[in-house]
Amino acid sequence: MANTYTQINIHAVFSVKGRQNLLTQNFRDDLFKYISGILNNLNQYSLAVNGYLDHIHILFEMHPTSAVADILEVVKTNSSKWINKNKFVNGKFSWQKGYGAFSYSRSQRDNVINYIMKQEDHHKKSTFREEYLDLLKKFEIPFKDEYVFEFYTI
To answer: What is the pLDDT of residues 45-69, one digit of tens each?
Structure first.
């Protein structure tokens, strides 16, 4: 695409089906690297991939001919196949349907990268549910509780 110049920074969040704590330390770092590779293979520029036991955050610079839905479908499909192929969890692994996607300007990018890379520390203070609902509210995205990720109470 001659004479097309963009910088589209997308922060996407998605969780493990049933919100189970399946993303254990023994393979989590390899999963993050694998997802980064998927993004790069899709001609997206991976900026940060991290998460915690039950969810993933990714920040990438999106190619202008791409659609967020298509990118995340490939990321989620291929990463769940990789987890299952390597038998990192008992039973069949899957991601929940849906995701959150938020856009940031270049001036915000370093702060978002820092936030994503400190997920483990962040979740010592707040739950994923709190974090995700805060993002939806911060970006003024209307939502209905029954359509947000499957949150289970204990």
So the answer is: 999 999 999 999 999 999 999 999 9
Domain range for 19 is 8-147
**Alpha-carbon distances of 35 from 29, 104, 129, 136, 140, rounded to whole Å:** 10, 20, 23, 24, 28
Q: Residue 95 has what DSSP assignment? A: B
- The CATH number of the domain holding residue 131 is 3.30.70.1290
Instruction: Count each helix (H run) and each strand (E run) in the chain, helices first.
Output: 5, 4
54/143 Cα distance (integer angstroms): 21
pLDDT tens, position by position, 22-42: 999 999 999 999 999 999 999
Tokens (6 digits) for 100: 């959150």
Q: Is the pTM of this model over 0.85?
A: yes
Residues 100, 57: contact at Cβ < 8 Å? no
